[in-house]
Amino acid sequence: MSRLVRASAALLLTSAFVVPFAPTAGAAVPMEPSGDADFTLTILHANDPESRLLSASGQEDFGGAARFTTLINDLREAEESGSDGVVTVNSGDMYLPGPEFSASREDGAPFYDAVAARYAGYDAIAMGNHEFDFGPDVYAEFIEQLPDVPVVAANVDVSKEPSLAALRDAGRIAPSTVVEAGGEQVGIVGALYPLLSTISSPRNVVIEDVVAPVQAEVDRLTAEGVDKIIMISHLQGIAYEERVARELTGIDAIVAGGGHEIMANPDDALVPGDQVTAHPGTGAPLSYPLIATNPDGEEVPIVTAGSNYKYVGRLVLDFDAAGDVISVSDRSGTVRVSGAGDDAVAPDADVEAQVTKPISDYVAELAETVVAQSEVDLNGVQNPGVRTQETNLGDLVADGLLDTGVRNAADYGVPEPQIGIQNGGGIRNASVIPAGPLTSLDTYSIAPFANQVAVVPDLPRSQIKELLEQGVAAAPAASGAFMQVAGVNFAYDPARTAQVVDGDGNVTTPGERVRNVILHDGTVLVKDGKVVEGDPITVVTNDFSARGGDNYPFRGADFTVVGSTYQGALERLITGRLEGRITEAAYPEGGAGRIVVGEEATVPDPGTGPSPSPSPSPTDGPTGGPTDGPTGGPSGDPSDPASKSPKPGDGGDGSLPRTGTAVLGLVAAAVVAVGAGGAALYLSRKRKGAEPAGLDG
After folding, report:
1. Rounded to the nearest 5 degrees, what angle is found at the Cα of 97, between the Cα atoms of 91 and 99?
2. In terms of domains, do 302 and 405 share one?
3. Which residue, of 15, 116, 167, 545, has the fewest CB within 10 Å?
4. String of DSSP letters for 289-313
5. 93 to each of 46, 125, 214, 291, 694, how far by Cα in Å?
6. What is the pLDDT of residues 659-696, one digit of tens each?
7. Rg of the chain (C-alpha set)
8. What is d(CA 305, CA 170) in angstroms, rounded to the nearest whole number?
């Protein structure tokens, strides 16, 4: 449907991708408007809000749902006079586990992300991966609280999930929708990342490959006379969207999601600290829009606009009478959500009252709720840190998994685990937390995802060695797969052969790095690089890792979630077994010697670290009943882990940052929202069900 007129020749992209396909063309500048347009359509879009409802992280003057609402409504009003029609869409990841989202899980609280979506006035919303982090039933509750706006996904089958199937039957979930804009029919088709089960918890939702079902839906709309069709997709990276654009016909534009890329033109103002994302093939900055060429030789603009309510994207397309796109208006681009400077907008009063205020109160409560006193600085820096070596904070998080796994094993009918494994990529505060008070909000900044504590029973010792080998396979380079451990000490030699694992968790090159492995009860599992035969071992980890995330070679082993998120397990360990005191003896700076470089593991000292109780007391039962739909947020996008990872601060002198950026942003936003000089407000609402640690159960 497209025959775009461009201001300059496309830059031919020839560099190799890290994904198995070659790139196509990208536009260096937006295309000039054509003088013979028969119809002009503006697409306003948001990407990956992810519950960042208060403000951009560490930037209280930018972002936030209330300012975003004002801006998108102002742009819609302006475009309705400058265009023939306007549609407003969101590419998914409407919410994300964390402190702001947990406010929605209070008794009687609405889904605040759904409230914000109502005021944004979307015509269609795509499915994102994080919508499934708490499983299909929670997602269904969220959709029920949205306004009467369709959620679109052509390659998703929800028929085996009753709560979502009911919404499909009611027309709330559909492959596509048709919107009237300026007297014209505009089709909007959705698509979701096919490998969703590797990064979230769709349970019985089936996701097909993208091209065939989307093409079938586009062809159906075209046969019904719809000649203006856009796709809103959540494929986790612009490279994937670009590949799909080159394989589909009949689509006039794609609004991409999941990759958090920032596209912008030279005159587009960005949130301080943001940079335009480099194209994964050429390394050149991504201009707005990126252009791909489809099989018919037609050019398709692809757009995205960052994440976290920081930007509104505005794509203005000129069509001829035949319904072909002939140009992209030069007013297309990325518009930042600002509360300061010449482009500042005032927060929407309704969103401020119904979303910002209650969440600010809740976050202020978390920031004021001290769960422990630490005698020692806790190191959660990523590199060097939890992604390269043992740290005391890594030990603490892994101990939380083991503590909860042992506590809850009997209630969930699984053996008590002997080893705890936490992937370093799931520890996200990216800072050193100074000795002193540790708050509930700190635990969310450390462990922000919906990852559930999962027990994997009776693994052969050879597979335990493979798991440990995977944890150190990238060393000394930083990797989210580098593991923090509990219940075990091991030694490895980074000069030896690294293990290689394929996408199915099969070891294609055996690792020779892990030399010595000793359980904390003294049992030797590996000696001189060789597995010592003996009884199988039960592991507790998070369900992201248990599903094979970070290529951990669990290879589809059965696992059982045991009633807690990893954040809940961390907070419960601190407030329970550690009795609110993190000692330097148990968690020394540099770690307790659980992971060492060399041939011989440190001999475990039974007098250090927590000692999980093998039998819970009557008040120490699981934090929630058994679930048949474990949740699991990813530690990052598996196709590009760095794209979503918080970056540690750097003062230029090599010193470590002293506080988590997530905590700073949330606390600052809360303080601004509740008013300077006011005391932190303490909520008295009872938390939902069995959720004493925030997102448990």
Report:
1. 120
2. no
3. 15
4. SEEEE-TTS-EEEEE-B-STTSEEE
5. 10, 10, 20, 24, 20
6. 333 344 444 444 333 333 222 222 222 233 222 222 22
7. 25
8. 31
Looking at the structure of the chain, the number of domains it has is 2
Among positive and negative, which fits the CA dihedral 626, 631, 632, 633? negative
Give the strands of the sheet with 514-519, arranged side by side: 530-531, 524-527, 514-519, 488-492, 595-597
Residues 6 or more apart in contact with residue 102 via CB below 8 angstroms: 362, 444, 694, 695
What are the distances in angstroms from CA 296 to CA 1, 2, 10, 319, 531?
Answer: 9, 9, 17, 18, 57
Same domain, residue pair 316 and 415: no
0.85 exceeded by pTM:
no
Average pLDDT of the chain to the nearest whole number: 84
Number of H helices, E strands in the chain: 15, 35
**Same domain assignment for residues 330 and 451:** no
Note whether 351 and 420 are same-domain residues. Answer: no
Task: Report yes or no on 693 lying in a domain.
Answer: no
Return the minimum-mean-pLDDT range out of 226-240, 325-339, 393-407, 680-694: 680-694
Final residue of a structural domain among 312, 330, 358: 358
Show the tokens assigned to 70.
């004002």
Cα–Cα separations (whole angstroms), residue 29 to 138, 293, 315: 42, 16, 13
Mark whether 379 and 243 lie in a shared domain. Answer: no
CATH number at residue 200: 3.60.21.10
Query: Are 189 and 216 members of one domain?
Result: yes
Q: Are 433 and 659 within 8 A, CB to CB? A: yes
Residue 690 lies in a domain: no
Strands 184-192 and 229-234: parallel
> How far apart are alpha carbons 569 and 397 in whole angstroms?
8
Query: Which position has the token pair 């269904």?
Result: 140
Which residues form the domain of 502? 369-613+621-659
pLDDT digit string, tens, across residues 514-541? 999 999 999 999 999 999 999 999 999 9
| DSSP letter assigned to residue 196 | G
Contacts of 14 (CB under 8 A, 6+ apart): 22, 23, 281, 282
Q: Are residues 417 and 334 in the same domain?
A: no
Shared domain for 25 and 174, answered yes or no, is yes
- Which tens digit of pLDDT belongs to each residue from 580-608? 999 999 999 999 999 999 999 999 876 55
Q: Which residue has the tokens 């882990």?
A: 641
